[in-house]
Amino acid sequence: MLRVAMDDTDALYPLLIRFFAHERQEIADFNKAVKQFGQDLPQVLTALRDLIAEKRAASRDFGAAEAAFLKHAQDAINPAVSEEDVQEMLIQHILTEDIFAKVFDNPDFHRQNNVASELYKLEEKLLGYGEKQKLLRALQPYYAGISQAAAVIQSHSEKQGFLKGLYENFYKVYNAKAADRLGVVYTPGEIVRFMIRSADWLCEKHFGKNLVDRGVEILDPATGTGTFIVELLEHFRGDHAKLRHKYKEELHANEVAILPYYVANLNIEATYQAITGQFAEFENLCFVDTLDNVDALGIHSGHQFDLLGGMADENMERVKRQNRRKISVIIGNPPYNVGQKSENDNNKNRAYSHIDSRIRHTYVSQSMAQKTAAYDMYVRFYRWATDRLSDEGMVAFITNRSFLDAQNLDGFRKTIARDFSAAWVIDLGGGCKEQSDFVGD
Ligand SMILES: C[S@@+](CC[C@H](N)C(=O)[O-])C[C@H]1O[C@@H](n2cnc3c(N)ncnc32)[C@H](O)[C@@H]1O
Question: Given the CA of residue 289, which atom of ligand 1 is nearest to it?
Fold first, then answer.
């Protein structure tokens, strides 16, 4: 034990440093295992990919199940999903299945969630009895580290923190390029809470309603670990009746990558359970490429919805249900593709013909700039969200600072001023290195 006088600042400082740097043994072991994971994973991934290729050639059953899942993914997520993407989803599913069961103490999750259960069936066709353990043997220290850490993290918020770390760390090791392309970084809780309170205040100011009120439907279009929905539930905690209605009917979230989709699902359901004492499936989470889901865009009063086509499975039903709703608030932190510094990085996002054409006819046509590199993911999400709102509503996004003054975004700013009756900008002073008055490193 260390004891120092509170006014002895020289002695107090090292004590505080030690206190805050303290890590429980299990957490330290876990962090060590995470490092080890990076070294061992490539070999396991090769083994899994080889096995899938073998099975594809040898087992008609597996081939058929894979083709069915691919068809679903192309319908629901986007038509560009390939056999290779399905293979990666299956691998992520296999690698993380046990982790979720342990951390959330929810062994049935994969059998109950509508997307997970399909991947689970595919996994059963791929791996015979004992094969999974054999394949994953090299990752045992990692799983053991997780089990120990999971056993001591009891509180709901610790679990959330753990999953956020897992989301970023796992993805960076697993596929750094995809992590960058998809913008796999979580949003700090402080920012999320600030945005929710601000959106609530603005909603009241401009529309005379609060977020919790009936009829205010809220969508996070790129939900990651589900932080915005989780914090919204916390925000509504005071009124259980309204919270229940929101959860069931008026909160929506989309995610395109399987790992965050699972994490979001578990986080959101666990938060709801922690607040209300009751478990209820979160039925408004869609596994979908938001930018490709253009059925509900440009809808104003009197629009007829296209209710035909597509598969009648649950995820598709969820997407269609969301598309029928009048969304009033779109809030979140869309992906920002930081790694694409030059054309040669070969980590480009795919083209989105509908959204890109809308950008061309609005932000780009309004621009005076010579070069209009206005098709990045952030701009696309702005375009999508603006078009998704009906006659009234708001978009609340975190963006990088370039939206405020970048030359090539002049058309964007002009269009925003036209599309919305008010724009509130909070400049947090990010991108400080580019500002001329910035002194420091
Ligand atoms: C910046 S993160 C969101 C972080 C989230 N607020 C959190 O705290 O966990 C962006 C997320 O958007 C997802 N994403 C990227 N492109 C998408 C798309 N076209 N449709 C839906 N989700 C997408 C990524 O997989 C990633 O999880």
Answer: 20
Helices (H), 277-368: 314-324, 353-359
pLDDT digits 0-9 by tens, 323-346: 999 999 999 999 986 545 444 455
Among 180, 225, 333, residue to substitute to test ligand 1 (most atoms within 8 Å of Cβ): 333
Q: Please tell me the residue having the least CA distance from ligand 1 atom 16.
A: 182
Say whether 362 sits in a helix, a strand or coil. helix
DSSP string, 83-127: HHHHHHHHHHHHHHHHHHHHHHT-TTHHHHSHHHHHHHHHHHHH-
355 lines ligand 1 (CB under 6 A): no
CA of 336 to the centre of ligand 1 (A): 9
Give the residue, 103 or 7, on which the prediction is more confident.
7
- CA–CA distance from 213 to each of 36, 241, 332 (Å)? 48, 11, 20
- Write the pLDDT tens digit of every residue in 370-404: 655 567 888 999 999 999 997 899 999 998 888 88
Tokens in use for 41?
């994973």
Contacts of 192 (CB under 8 A, 6+ apart): 227, 228, 231
Ligand 1 lined by 255 (C-beta under 6 Å): yes
Residues in the chain: 441
Q: Are 159 and 104 in contact (CB under 8 A)?
A: yes
Long-range CB contacts for residues 61-65, cutoff 8 Å, separation at least 24 = 61/125, 62/122, 62/125, 62/126, 65/121, 65/122, 65/125
Beta carbon of 411 within 6 Å of any ligand 1 atom: no
Q: Which of 383, 381, 376 is nearest to 347 (CA)?
A: 376
Q: Does residue 340 line the site of ligand 1, with CB under 6 A?
A: no
Ligand 1, atom 12, lies closest to the CA of 222
Q: How far is the CA of 22 from the centre of ligand 1 (A)?
A: 32
Q: Are 246 and 210 in contact (CB under 8 A)?
A: no
Burial of 147: CB neighbours in 10 Å, binned 0-12, 13-18, 19+: middle
Atom of ligand 1 nearest to the CA of 78: 19
Give how far Cα 421 sits from Cα of 27, 185, 359, 416, 417, Å: 49, 31, 20, 9, 7
Q: CB count, 10 Å around CB of 148?
A: 18
Domains assigned to the chain: 25-176 (no CATH), 189-434 (3.40.50.150)
- Rounded to the nearest 5°, which phi and psi values hold at 381? -65, -35
